[in-house]
Design goal:
The chain is α/β, with parallel strands linked by helices. The protein is 25% helix and 21% strand. The strands form 4 sheets. Strands 2-8-3 form a 3-stranded mixed sheet, covered by helices on one side. A 3-stranded antiparallel sheet has the order 4-5-10, with no helix packed on it. The longest helix is centred in the C-terminal third of the chain and has 16 residues.
Amino acid sequence: MTSDLFNSEEAVIFDFNREYMGVVRDVARACEEFGHIDSGRIAVSYSLARTNERHGLQAKIYPLRFEGGAREKISNGYKFSIPPVYYDGVEIFYIISFCIPRFLNLTISEKLEAIVHELFHISPRFNGDIRRLSMGSKAAHGSSHEIFDRFVAKIVKRYLYSGERSVLPRFLYYDYKKLKQSYAEIKLEKLKIPKIITEKAVSRPE
């Protein structure tokens, strides 16, 4: 499939959330590693990069459920719960937040690697939890960040050469400065990340 699903080229306003959600959706559809993902339950957001440095946090995924997809958990006498998040009337399981402008100043391959990186953190069960590659502090990336990054780069390379992907939109090649020059306005919507609710667990009578 090589059809172009993106129509921002004719727009005066660049809708960052919508356009990059389109990229996320296409990557998830075209890559076999993400066959478990329902992109309709993912939303895109943004945060402002704290510095203008090129290196630093590029994107972050927020899982909206606890381990195993649980809506709440009890630990040390307290109950923790995450309020459900709805976007366009659909409950969202994950929010991917991109750091602006740092993310936009990446190369096209680096942008796609950032997207694939976050998508790979999604649980194979697609239940609002993250994928755990090992135990403890190395759960998200496994024993080696370098091996994880090489794996991500391979997925991106296959995506770029795949006949299943859509035509790459021109805005993927633009950095922040070029994007501002090309559109009258850049529309950004920042989604509220829900805070975990903590309350005293109620003891059940024996």
